[in-house]
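Hi,

Apologies if this is the wrong queue. I'm a grad student, and the batch job for DUF1677 family protein (DUF1677) from Rhynchospora pubera produced an output file that my downstream script rejects. I'm not sure whether the problem is my script or the file. Here is the sequence I used:
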Amino acid sequence: MEEDCTPTYISKIRELFSGKWICGLCAEAVKELLTKDPSISKETALEAHMAMYKKFNSTIRLNPNFYLASAMKDVAKKCLNRRRSLDSCVPVAAKIEGGGAVSIVADMKKK
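Support response: The file is valid. Your script probably expects a header line. Output copied below for reference.
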């Protein structure tokens, strides 16, 4: 097994992650961030994951109820922002296409 924490394995992990010794789960999270946004560097992805992990440890583990309330607030904000962006799309005309289907022609200007 490769992950026996041998000096060779540890140096390999540190080489991959800017001198930091991270667990396999964190390594996978960093790889996922890089896959989602290839424009960021490995160091940036690692810093983002570390920031998320620190936030997790300081909020969720200490007060799960607070985290749930905070997450619900974030969901509500996203829904509100999505609704606002949809409201900015004002239908100006409807046309009947072949087969009787109605399509809305929208004016993308803000109200």
